[in-house]
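Deviation from plan, reported transparently: 2-acetamido-2-deoxy-beta-D-glucopyranose complex.
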Amino acid sequence: MRLSLLTSLCLTAIGALSQQTPGTYTPAPPPPPGLTFLYTCYAICDNRLYTTQGPRGLRTTIPIIGGNFTGPRLRGQILDVGADWGVTDPQTGIFSADTRYNFLTDDGANIFLQTSGPAQPDGSLHLRGVFETGDKNYYWLNNIVAVGVLNAISSTNTTFTLRIDMWHLASDWNSTTFYNGSTYPAQASRGALGAQGPATAVEGAFGVLPTPEVAWFADAFEDIV
Ligand SMILES: *[C@@H]1O[C@H](CO)[C@@H](O)[C@H](O)[C@H]1NC(C)=O
Ligand SMILES: *[C@@H]1O[C@H](CO)[C@@H](O)[C@H](O)[C@H]1NC(C)=O
Ligand SMILES: *[C@@H]1O[C@H](CO)[C@@H](O)[C@H](O)[C@H]1NC(C)=O
Ligand SMILES: *[C@@H]1O[C@H](CO)[C@@H](O)[C@H](O)[C@H]1NC(C)=O
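Because the crystal trials were delayed, the predicted structure below was used instead.
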């Protein structure tokens, strides 16, 4: 008796599952989480060091030698210590970035970042961004989930410049309260950053730059990989 009740419960469950065939999902999807703008970054890359066929595909090493980033809450320079160890999928030819580099903010904080993500049909790359810092004012960066869009915008004989626009999920942390009860950045210093006029600075810095050229980018990456 108990067994048959179990059996019929199971059958009911299986019946309910089998009604959810692909394409017949009826509940309203949850609202998507919003995004908060983090920064626009211009990364200057040197010509590739080398490309080699390895166990995970065609690995290309591209030094990241400088540049800058500007956003409402952080701005500064890219240090000459990083690179993109991107890989090209041998089954599709799709290039995926895999970077590690360092930001130095205008107020002296070191931020280590890692980005990765594949080329997209429109020629841009879509990135995941992961940040790591010990600086208390930027500690919140350790606890955000960031995504970005990368386009190549210009080149010289020996370098090329990438533009990376980065956002993070809107409900992520934007400050840090430590066990000692102190919250950073303090309300006052957040105000100070705002008073410097980050929005204007962003427009001023980027207004003169050309719109990212998708075609150019495709060419550039053809050269790289
Ligand atoms: C950031 O770098 C870009 C590209 O090199 C440059 O055009 C822009 O003026 C720089 N912005 C700042 C704030 O240094
Ligand atoms: C860049 O390359 C072009 C064509 O190969 C050459 O004419 C030019 O002199 C090079 N410029 C520099 C700064 O090396
Ligand atoms: C920080 O996050 C809180 C809580 O999510 C939000 O109310 C506030 O507007 C955010 N502040 C900034 C400067 O983004
Ligand atoms: C609170 O703790 C943080 C993280 O350890 C530290 O950076 C900060 O200086 C401390 N603040 C005070 C007022 O002790």
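The chain has four helices and twelve strands. We consider this an acceptable substitute for the interim report.
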